[in-house]
Predict the 3D structure of the following.
Amino acid sequence: MKASKQKKIKMLLKQNKFFFQIACILAFILVLSACDGRPSGVLSQNKMTKVLTEMHKTDATMSEKGMYYGIYSKKSPYYKFILDKYGITQAQFDSSLVWYTNNPLKFERIYDDVILNLTSLQNDIKKGKYHKLDSIDLTHLRNNIWYKPTHYTFTKDSARTHLNFEITTNLLYGDVYVLKFLQRIAPEDSCKKQRIIFRINYANGKVDSIYKTAYNDSLLRRYTFRFPAKRKLRIKSISGELLGSLSYKGTFNAQLDSISLFREFNAKKQDSLRRVVEKADPTPKLFQKKMNLDSLNKLNNALKKKLLHPV
């Protein structure tokens, strides 16, 4: 009897010890959450890290597709999709962002994790994890179509307000144009509201453009514009201003270097893309028919005159 009682006591002690350990762990978790000091409704660091990682991936994708410079109303559905995916509202995200901004040490730890996530993703992409190279990829070509000087230096006496360019060589719907260059503007540059503009000019007069502000603070900046030709129209030219100003009485004091303009296209799809443009924009053919009809009418009129008034 005594032995059985002792066994029961030992079992109870073990159970009590187990429950005591569980209670200690729960208490420790509660203490940690209390130390975090997050108000109710603010996202945890882990969830905030996931949401910001997704948003930066989305920004990069939109930039790649030429959407990054568009109006916010066209981009907002993509951000809303991310919030819906994690079951949070715009108000929750905004309040969480404000709270973490006011707690920079916690926000810094979040962004350290975001950078680690993006770096890991970048390494996976470089290794071909998400897109293995096949024969179709070999049809994507990249040509530098910049034939102008790749370096410009303007002194304080350079009486200009614009550095324009226009390229008309072999352009087609479906192309992606990538303009890159280095730019440094001196503080003593007297031009006002400096800007950089990149345009796609279509044959029917429509124009798509990207605009960026330039700064005269002596910092060497690298600019990259990635601009897809999305309209199913004939392209007349691509043009723009590597450096422009709203002031027409100023002088340039700037330097541009390493200018390149690449045309990225799918060589295998060139003929089919041309057919798409011709189908969507038949104006040139109609114009040619009209020209031929006008020529025929002129010829008929000349023959009539000759018959009515023979020499």
In short: The two ends are 147 Å apart (CA to CA). Confidence is low (pLDDT under 50) at residues 30-35, 133-138. Residues 2-36 form the longest helix (35 residues). The chain is about 45% helix and 20% strand.
